[in-house]
Amino acid sequence: MNDTTARPSPREINALVALIDQGQLSAAETRARELLARDSGDARVWKMLSVALGRQGRWEDALASLHRALEICPDDADGFAEAADVMRALGRVREAVPLYQRALLLNPQLVEAQNNLGNACLELGKNLDAARCYRLALGLRPDDPVILCNLGNAQRLLGLFDEAKICLERGIALNDQLGIGHGYLGMVHVALGRREAAVENFHRALALNPSDALALTNLGHVLRDLGRRQEAVTVFQRALALHPSRPENHCNLGSVLFELRRVDAAMDCFRRALELQHDYAPAHLSVALALRQQRRAADAEASCRAALAIDPNYVEALAFLGELTADRGRFTEAEALFSKATDVNPAFFSGYVSIATHRKMSVADAAWLRSVQTLLAKRLPLNAEISLRYALGKYFDDVAQYDEAFDSYARANELTKRFGGRYDRTQFTALISRIIERFQPDFIRECQARGSAEELPLLIVGMPRSGTSLTEQILASHPAVFGAGELTFWHGAFVRLERGGLFSKTGMSLLPEVARNYLQRLHAVGSGALRVVDKMPANFLYAGLIHAAFPKARIIHMRRHPLDTSLSIYFQNFFNIGPYANDLEDLAHYYGQYLRLMDHWRKVLPSTAFWEAPYEGVVEDQEHWTRCMIDFAGLPWDPRCLNFQDTNRVVITASKWQVRQRIYRGSCGRWQNYEKYLGPLRDIMSLPGLT
Fold it and tell me: Which CATH number does the domain 425-686 belong to among 1.10.3660.10, 3.40.640.10, 3.40.50.300, 3.30.420.40?
């Protein structure tokens, strides 16, 4: 029986509140239950019991207590708001929304309920509804920094970046200690392409809350985009240490390790993500990316399909399956996959880019053009706009609208510079001088005595876009040759040897180990072949070292008209090639240093090891130059090399479509279409070394 003498007194209620405020939650729970044993009809005590239970993480029990309170006081607006908060804590966001709405119907002045209803809408992806709720909350409390920051975040998600920036800056001005405000502002700066500013915001957010997992993750992604990958590794490792059970943290770390060419370490991260959550589609896709790089095409496809089995509309996986299909030369099937991805998500920019990359575009592609131009009319993430402008440039080049093409390519390159990479002309010149100075004939002869007698390596070097992929495809059409693509080995070997004293006795003694490691790589990918092709173009820097380690290895230097080569580099969206590619003056300087080094190799390397082929010659007289290649490789002639476009092999370079077409002359003299734009590139033609 409940009577007025059993009802808790104000002093007892205040004591219960004090226990909760002091964090004595178990004691508060015990005391609340004692009071309810006297009077189970006191809604105030049921609500305080709910608070004590909720703060202990016992949300189901807290919700049951609130239900009892609402049964007693069915018009308690605060009770409905608190029940909604508990529902959200339980992950039952959809059920929370009507409870917030009921609370606000009873009392429209509940600012926190209005703000939290906005949060619930945001969690449900109803960004417009969320923004509306936050504005109503601000109408009640105009200078609340938390609500301002929440509204700014909703505006960001709606693509209203300028409005979001103003709102967030106002919130931060009211409370500079609000970490979420700095974090959200950083995300706005990312969307606006202001990555350096974003880094500052995320660092500020983390200074205020070092365990802010979202800020850590976003900082890692921005550093990765800026090319500061080693810093990104450290940040992702911090995020992983905070939450080791989250598969996405393992994938984030693995992705940046993959970009650092640490494929095995990356694969370990992706595998760990799958151990934590076997149906985590991004981990399956990440495994597929790594397997492709390891040239395990069938396994890569299986992993990609595993991702699609989990989520059939996973557009990134659809597009990557398209890339894998294109790697095998099945371009019609690939385009169907790219198109399916854009059908699922018309804003998926990569699908449009891949369509343009894998075939020649025509005026019949008007729908593609409209879609790309529609996307570019919006404010896009920097990498999306860059990729689309390169693709748009290719479209205009294919349809012979050269002014529009160059404008698109130039804008793409200028945007790429925002990633922060800079080409250091002095540093590169010093590297070339150092290589020339050190790789003199006497030193090379001294090294040769320690080198391997193996003839397995067959290297193709030169500037990017100089015909290295075409040459590999021709050679790989020979039954005794395996094309291994671009192997990342010699740069790392050179750096390690130079740091270890390449020109000391200790450094020279390491050459046999370097040779063994390289041979292991070649045998692993091309078991049974007489020659394995490594077509990494930048190995032109290390031709002397390669010859020192393998005196009988063959090095083919592909040469192409300087202006065609440079223009093709400028027109290609190379993410990892180096910042020299995005500026015509830097390109001219890099090309000049390349010529200087190649002139040195001609002088110091024997003709049995170093041979040059002109791209234009291969195009004009395919059989003659193909026979010369095969003869230089020390192999018998095989006519299949003339029908290289029919060779069934996986090609993952940017030229995968071109190398499966018959020889055509359209790429020769292409620079003449853009002569008025070439500027500093014209100076290349007067440089020494163009013999």
Answer: 3.40.50.300
